[in-house]
Amino acid sequence: MEIEKIISTLHTFERKVLPVLKETSSFEKIAEKTKLQKVEVMRALQWLQNKKIIRVNKTLKEAISLDENGLKYKEKELPEKTFLRAISNKTPLDDIKHKTNLSKEELGVSLGILKSKGAIEIGKERGTIVSITDIGKNILKKEFPEETFLKKKFPINTSELKDLDKLTFENLKKRNKILKINIIKIINAEPTEIGKKIIQHGIEEKNIIDRLTPSIIKSGEWKNKKLRSYDVKINVPNISGGRQHFVSQAVQYIKRIWLDMGFKEMTGNLVQTSFWDLDALFVPQDHPARDMQDTFYVKDPKYGKLPKELAKRVKATHENGWTTGSRGWQYEWSESAAKENLLRTHTTVLSAQTIAKLKKENLPVKFFSVGKVFRNETLSWKSLFEFIQVEGIVVDPNANFMNLKGYLKEFFAKMGFPDVRIRPAHFPYTEPSAEVDVWHPVKKQWVELGGSGIFRPEVVKPLLGQAVPVLAWGLGMERTIMEYYGIKDVRDVYRNDLKQLKETKIWMK
Questions:
Q1: DSSP string, 253-287
Q2: Residue 485: its pLDDT value, please?
Q3: Rounded distance between C-alpha atoms, residue 407 and residue 289, angstroms
Q4: Helical (H) or strand (E) element with 446
Q5: Backbone torsions φ then ψ of 494, nearest 5 degrees
Q6: Is the dihedral of CA 450, 270, 288, 329 positive or negative?
């Protein structure tokens, strides 16, 4: 009963292939006997193997075939034999070349081979003179081993070569385009115990149909046929449908975290002036980060526009502290340097622009951004020159450092890092400043993932008009998501490997 049930599920290809396995296990002969295309035989073998009806064995073998020179020499003769025939007494090499029409390469090969066999002697008399020896005359009377080899039926498996043939093969293999060595896959199939029972039972082939067609229904032919049963448990190929890139999934997940905590999203241009990217954040114009080594400056247009009134306040803050209570940086601020366009080096530029638009009566407010930034850094396993930064600010007269830590702990917990540590650090535009570390569950150590702090009055007061606490943080997204995806090299986040894109797990829900 079990045998009949299995037989009822067999596809037409399987029904043709299985009985032939009584006679042969060779893939080539199966295709020949069933008159199926090779791709159809391969499908049948795979399906039968999935059902454990057969075992398929695949082995790799080296196959020798003739290349273009091999075919040429097989039809005519080897160049060394042509060379040898052209010698009479002492013959100038130029005469042999003219007489035989051998190429320069063939002449050189022939000289080397015949000299090694003792078939010729080479002298110098107004050029190279070649004479044939007694050994050479005897060689001419026989067939060269290489000629015998070229007359064989190709392709030949290297494992089938005898000792003399092996030596000849090695010699010919070194020569130009005489032999080709191909790796071929040998496929053999043999029935399992259940397969043998099915073959012995016999397989009906003619009265089985795989599918109903309009013509079969109209003609009534289906009434005299058996419909093949479908095995819903059989293995089928994986189908990779369209899906979001895993980085896009992570971006959406991160945005949802901040939105759920009541934050609003900040957006802005990738190209910004140095004013918004650096000056408005109280970064001095002689700071190393402004050099070409760290920043991508835009060549055309080189300069952008400045907000006039705000620029005056920022200028005064840099030069003498303005009304912030600071002494500033004590240098002459350059409007020209502030106008220079660049690719934003951080999304904190969006925080500055957002604060500048706020009104005092609308506080407190919370904002975040998830966007691309650019740093002129060397590409390595841990550094990218283009990456995504996650930014956040809270503008609140009652905000404090404990609130900052609370927001960070909430965010990182939802990113899979429940243990967060804050430790002192320095950033030009925050005071106090802190590095954000998380406890790595695999490495069993603290790992730095971002920076944070409270914006200095020199940043906030020129932008907002009053010194209000502004909690701020920023982190590289790629480093934060690498552990979840099992990625060790940050470059692999964007390598666009189709296998990786198909198999990468869905971002946590």
A1: HHHHHHHHTT-EE----SEEEHHHHTGGGT--TT-
A2: 84
A3: 28
A4: strand 445-455
A5: -120, 25
A6: negative
Q: Please state whether the peptide bond connecting residue 432 to the residue before it is cis, i.e. omega within 30 degrees of 0.
A: yes
Show the DSSP H helices in 380-509 as ranges.
401-414, 457-464, 477-485, 498-503
Comparing 210 with 449, the larger pLDDT belongs to: 449
% of the chain residues with pLDDT over 70: 98
Strand intervals (E) in 164-262: 179-191, 208-209, 226-227
> For residue 427, what is the enclosing H or E element?
strand 420-427
What stretches of 1-87 show up as alpha helix (H) in DSSP? 2-7, 12-20, 27-34, 38-50, 68-75, 79-85
Burial of 485 (0-12, 13-18, 19+ CB in 10 A): middle
pLDDT of residue 509: 57
Q: Which domains are delineated in the chain?
A: 2-61+184-227 (1.10.10.10), 66-181 (1.10.10.10), 248-503 (3.30.930.10)
Residue 487 backbone zone (phi > 0: left; psi -120 to 50: alpha; other: beta): beta
Could you report the per-residue pLDDT of 39-86, keeping only the tens digit for each?
999 999 998 998 889 999 988 888 899 999 999 999 999 999 999 989
